[in-house]
Design goal:
The strands form 2 sheets. A 7-stranded mixed sheet has the order 7-6-5-8-9-11-10, with helices on both faces. Strands 2-1-3-4 form a 4-stranded mixed sheet. The chain folds into 2 domains: 102 residues, Nonspecific Lipid-transfer Protein, Chain A, CATH 3.30.1050; 282 residues, Vaccinia Virus protein VP39 (Rossmann fold, 3-Layer(aba) Sandwich), CATH 3.40.50.150. It is an alpha/beta fold and 424 residues long.
Length: 424
Amino acid sequence: MTTAPPRSHPHRATTGRPDPARWPDIAATPKASWPVRTVAAGIVRGALKRLPLNVRFPDGTSLGLGGPLVEVHDPDAFHARIGSTGLIGFGESYMAGEWDAPDLTGALTVLAANAAHLVPARLQRLRGLWAQRQPGAQRNTPDGARDNISAHYDLSNELFALFLDETLSYSSAVFRGFPAEWPLLAAAQQRKIDRLLDLAQVGEGTRVLEIGTGWGELALRAAARGAHVTSLTLSREQRALALDRVREAGYADRVEIELCDYREATGSYDAVVSVEMIEAVGAEFWPVYFRTLDERLVPGGRAALQAITMPDDRMRATLSTHTWIQKYVFPGGMIPSTEAVEECVRDHTRLAVTARDGFGAHYAETLRLWRERFTERADEVDALGFDETFRRLWTFYLAYSEAGFRSGYLDVQQYLFTKEDDAR
């Protein structure tokens, strides 16, 4: 495993406030003008009063139709951030401790369920004028993709191990029933992997290309079936630990893990498997990604893909918008719609969409278990050198993601793509 962030480069602010060197946009409240704050306050309050929330302000006033409690501690800062940077500012305000919610996931689920209507329609039409644009530095070019992947997945293997189960699977599990319990998570993750391997018909002697190694669990289970696996990753930290796990399992002769961009893949394979990797590709490169699946598959081959999806209209409305998740969690990331996936496959490959199965409720439960585990082990997160602002960031990220699936705004799919055998 990797070493923790050195104590000589601390993540903790000694003053109890966000460290301005580590968190410049959190430590300083935007200098929004009075008109900006006033307009933002009007829009925010107009939206909140129509929602099933109970939003309380320090002066004793409250808004909403009743529901999960949201406590706004610093209304001026809260409105200034939202007025300056929209939903990015909303997330940053939580990171700064300017608002809280005892049931954070519940509050965010209400907001996610109403996401399309929070901003008035007349302002939605002017989105291009007020929404922040995605920074060019986060484009998923070969060099950019390496930086984007490293920013998240190279944080610390120990950090991820604190809230993931022993399979180190960082994607939706498939449970037998709800509510899910922590002791069942590892088996549910393996069930998810086995479903994908079954879709791709992975067995003895199958040549498998995996795009996105993670920490190696899928490669291990494919090797246990007798397959020969070439797995690609851009994360040095994940690769190092995955290689250790492969050696310890005795599969070094069946599994290769390459530090390689999917666009650099070579060879021919009977099966291609990719779990929640397309979200890191970027919309402009989706055609290249799907062509890679096509080009690497032999005729008659099968590709099994697990992908998070969002509504097509919301995806298209936000294609060029910079979001809080992109700024702080997954730089360069973009969630596709099922329509976008199937359009890319149709227009850019010889593949056919043979099966698709959505199971978003399972991701909500997976994220709940991760979030609860992360919260329970806060002291250990602290011991790794990550500060309170980081913990609030990750708590918000996990709750925000869970809310997306609980509200139905997000879904997760398992796809099967097949390639016709020209010899038939």
